[in-house]
Amino acid sequence: MTLELITPESIIKYWYSDRVKSKWFNSSIEFDKEIKSNYEKCWLEILRGEKKSWQESAEGCLALTIILDQFPLNMFRGEVKSFSSEAIAIKVAKKAIERGFDKEIDKDKVAFLYMPLMHSENINDQNYSVQLFEEAGLHDNLRFAKHHRDIVKKYGRFPHRNEILNRKSSQQEIDYLNSDNAFTG
């Protein structure tokens, strides 16, 4: 894929294709490499502010949240860099919701506009995430949003990120991470 062909429409078409949907939460090294080789340059352009116009439409905001929140988790799996554009994704999502863009996105696609809030380590973002998924009637996502919120509520962060982010884990977090109930991302 050449850089000129990357548009909000192409991102959405790619991300919601049947082939890619099956990899959303079951990634592989090959899929991570595919995303990195096809989209890292676009991600860097966005970080430099070169795609600001995408924030003027619902489709553009959805594409931005996918690129800023989801793609780095694949492109930089296990690295600090995988969380480096999360804060920008949260800002894009909140701005889009403020403007009512989430109401313009198909119900089967809007979850990825809300997802940056679920990935936030801020409890207010977590509560907002739960509210949004509940209001949209996205019950499968709501279950995960509540789970994410409960982790942040209890620990103030996601303990599974501690090692990657070079943060010291508390004994309570270590016990949790060693339990059968641990969420590992």
Architecture overview:
With 185 residues, the protein is mainly alpha-helical. It has one domain (26-177): Tetratricopeptide repeat domain (Serine Threonine Protein Phosphatase 5, Tetratricopeptide repeat, Alpha Horseshoe), CATH 1.25.40.10. It has helices spanning 8-15, 18-21, 29-47, 58-75, 86-98, 111-119, 123-135, 139-155, 171-177. The protein is globular.
Structure summarized in a few sentences:
By secondary structure, the chain is mainly alpha-helical. It contains 9 helices and no strands.
List the helices and strands and how they pair.
Layout: H1 8-15, H2 18-21, H3 29-47, H4 58-75, H5 86-98, H6 111-119, H7 123-135, H8 139-155, H9 171-177
Task: Give a quick set of tags describing it.
Serine Threonine Protein Phosphatase 5, Tetratricopeptide repeat, mainly alpha, 185 residues, single chain
Helix content: 55-70%
CATH homologous superfamily title: Tetratricopeptide repeat domain
The poorly predicted ranges are none
Q: Indicate the CATH topology.
A: Serine Threonine Protein Phosphatase 5, Tetratricopeptide repeat
Distance between the termini: 29 Å
**Overall pLDDT level:** 94
